[in-house]
């Protein structure tokens, strides 16, 4: 049965044709944002005064005035109903990595025996989802299970199918954040305030600093029927067993290769849908591993970019099925080939321009550039362990430090130009400061054409690399909510900038000229941040040693890495920047440990099941066939001759037995390890037990399963093999 099934599935998967996509007759620029209640729609559907107030909220961060809620809701309803919308939902980001929604219809009784479509302002603005079963880390006791979702007007509402989607924050009755959006928005506010204060030292006209995020989403596509034949993929999103394919990525022929037709149609489809939802998709290409691809939009304001990424991931999963694919967002679906990340391109920009653009035209602009680079690195250095925690998960742990990008140590690559520039600022002659007045110092910058600067020699091994006008945080996992990394990074940078401004002000108060004060503090910090700068090969063993010497966080165990959230310096940072309280951090850590445990637990269970119920029976059957053959040979030849003829079969029979007994014994051991871990009360200790005792057994046993795959008759093997999963498209 099983053998027939696999071949059948493979054959059909091979024959599958590309699914045609209905391409709109309009140009992308014309259908962009078709299903979004953006400013254009607001202008059309809202009264002029209400429109002006909404613009103030969106552009200037003014508070949303509840008195306009009804008018806004009415405009939204009219627009939505023109698109056939019948339902609405608050759409939020609980601490599950996904999004949550509960749909309600517009219809209400009209109390004349009929019904009428209604959508009042209060429904737009706030709701109370019965959300007691979302992770809350003990913040809400069951008797006070209420949670509130409240509209985030800086992220516009949009339509999916017949439903109006309203992006919301999610908080507990007592005001603690139960989602990613609340702390993210607070972090963005903090970095705005801190960066504006520093930017004003250089240009008093700066009013706001905005944080930009451009994410690049990597993913795998697997034929849907092959996927269905792999219970491990279905349950955990990754293959828990599978021998290397003879060919994988060693020929480097997939990266940027021509896109296979079935995949190209899929990409076209998701792009059209994304553009209609206002996600500014721009780039698509093949990635390094076979069947691995990437999609990237143009960067946007961070809060919006995060929402768009969450939305994009759900579009990618949904549309894949239409094309006979499953979209894998797991960080490491296949052993032996590259995993998937989500590079987060991060930058700060004032209302007058990007702050990280190098180098400027005047010495003062260059000093500003250096200041922002150095203070960003100060935030990253001070909290390097915490930043690692912000991107750590049971799934991303397979990438971090596991022989591929990026290593489990946070450091920053600056490239030669910026490194030289910073060194120059550190060592330049003090005299330069006082030539012909206060601002006449020279930085003697090498003048490079823009093009060269944008293409700073890129170091792909660095988890936090400067790439021309932004930093690229590459350690973020493909499946993760970007908000986790972005809120941590922005809070860290906000703290560094706040501190910077404070020290500069102190010097100015003591009578120092502004420029001198800035330079003094920058120079101090340049000396301080040196250990975080690393331009070498982040994959090398030497780097691990060197990083330890530099005092960087080198821990690789996920549950222990999470401790970084609760160190004194992390709590102080989050509390002083008004992003999260110690109580919230503790609650979130409980969730992180619990989630870690559950993921390994599920993997271990399904793995045990596959071993005992899928692999061992097939292997035993194959072995019996061989034994049968040997005994028949024995019955027709004399013993010496028969043994000679059966030599190889006897070896195989023995090998199979060895692998089999290892598997059976250790699956037993793994189950015992799970039981022991389950008895532990503390979530932290339990997660550590799962990490130390359960997870390694999966890998050890896997080795033997993979060996068996190379021994047993191909026809009998029940699970689609790597060469099939990775090369059929
Ligand atoms: P690569 O793969 O070479 O790093 P991509 O073109 O795939 O580059 O993606 C780069 C991402 O960085 C895009 O989302 C782009 O919009 C974004 N980006 C470019 N400039 C900035 C910036 N100043 N701030 C934030 N993101 C940026
Ligand atoms: Mg990139």
Task: Give a description of the structure.
By secondary structure, the protein is α+β, with helices and mostly antiparallel strands. The protein has a domain of 148 residues: Ubiquitin-like (UB roll) (Roll). It contains 25 helices and 19 strands. A hairpin with a 7-residue loop joins strand 1 and strand 2. The structure holds adenosine-5'-diphosphate and magnesium ion (MG).
Report a brief summary of the structure.
This protein is an alpha+beta fold and 729 residues long. The protein contains 25 helices and 19 strands. The protein is globular and about 105 Å long.
Helices, strands, pairings?
Elements: H1 2-15, H2 28-31, H3 39-45, H4 48-60, H5 69-82, E1 87-92, E2 100-101, E3 104-105, E4 107-109, E5 115-117, H6 121-125, E6 126-127, E7 147-151, E8 158-160, E9 163-172, H7 181-202, E10 209-223, H8 224-228, H9 231-236, H10 261-276, E11 281-286, E12 292-297, E13 300-301, H11 302-322, E14 325-328, E15 342-350, E16 353-354, H12 363-382, H13 384-391, E17 412-413, H14 415-427, H15 450-454, E18 464-466, E19 471-473, H16 482-509, H17 514-529, H18 541-550, H19 558-561, H20 568-576, H21 582-636, H22 639-645, H23 647-678, H24 683-711, H25 722-727
Parallel strand pairs: 1-9, 17-18
Antiparallel strand pairs: 1-2, 1-3, 4-5, 6-7, 7-9, 8-9, 10-12, 10-13, 10-14, 10-15, 11-12, 15-16, 15-19, 18-19
Helix pairs in contact: 7-16, 10-11, 12-16, 12-17, 13-16, 14-17, 16-17, 21-22, 21-23, 21-24, 23-24
